[in-house]
Amino acid sequence: MKIDITKPHALRAALKGTPEGQPVEITDKLTAGLSARIRMINGVPVGQWNCRVTIGGKTKRISLGSVAEITGEQARLAALQAKATAKGGQAIVSASTAARTTAAAQEKQEKQDAVHSLTWADVLFAPHDGPSGERQESYQARVWDKKRSGRDAINSIKRLFGDDLNKPMVDLTRHRMEALYLSRADTAPHAAANAVRYFRPAFVHYATRDYPTNRDALDLVESLMKPPSRGGQYEKPTRDRVLTPSDWTALWNAAPETPAGWAMKLAMMTGVRNREACALRVSEVDLENRIIELPATRSKNKSHFRVVLGDKAIVIITTAMQTNADRGMDTDLVFTNDGTAPVWLGDNVKKAIDQNIDVADWRFHDFRRAMASHLAESGVDDSLVDLMLNHAASKSRSGVLGVYNLSEKMEQRRVAIAKWEQITDRWITGKSAKIVKIG
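User: That's the sequence. What structure does it adopt?
Assistant: Structure tokens below.
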């Protein structure tokens, strides 16, 4: 039966008088090879549009789609496009095959998206769909609930990672892992080491099962903890490395002229900790009185602390602040690349510096030990050095002395900072500098 398939209700008209379920073959009046085998089911025409095309001298019948989903006008256009494609010698995929392929690809993509959106909290503490699509139990149910140390493992990991557990697994990069570890280790080194020890087998479990983890972060986890000894305890070695004058000078000269490099130099000249330097706020700096007012919330021992600034530290801070202003960044951060986040002295910065110098086995935290050691050798009292470094745990600031002696010794500290600048000037320039008391 030849009909104009583009007319309204053309299919119903073709099936008029035909018993329910009986097929009728129709063809389009205007498009050769375009046809459909249709029947009426529950008052609705059903069937498939088909088109005959010739490819390489052979006639092939392809499906264009269901009559319920494609109108006659759309079927005619699809048939003409199929014929033009065949005439050009290109392969033609039927609508049904294309639909199945598209559906399969879409389903695969949805599964991949679901896996890539998994957070560490999802896989560690809750059932979830794994990369294979199968339902997986949590690591907590798989391992920690079966061990007496399981609760300690969960609490340690939550304290180390915090809100990062609720971010996609792939967001835990080496740089982020290092920042979290160092931040925790700065105040609780044993707790940080234990958290990594608990986290390592879980990380390995998911990294080897096609979960979206970062291999470089796993490498860092592996390097942070040595294999356990025969007794099953992980070693937590102490560090006694003191930078020599030549080491210190090489690091000073290699520090990049960037916000991170300036933060590094501020730590070298003041002895503040990594995070205290990197996250320095403009509102904490008092240039007139040459001090940093470090709030209790950013101090390791949770108490307000004043950091004395020498000439070099003043230049470093003002340079960073002026650079931010020149870049149009209205920010309270002193050391920042984008105005919203502070810099961090992590693995990437260290690697860049290591490419230009030959200083073995150094860390950013060594700047504090170097300042303390060389000031002590120059005659500065240990208790004053401890006060300059805000070392509440030292012998000179603990016990009875720590309770009753609350003096900040600002004048003595200013003299000591001037002496530190004299020492480092001699290292850098090879010339002696005159000590000037800063009042």
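The chain has 18 helices and ten strands.
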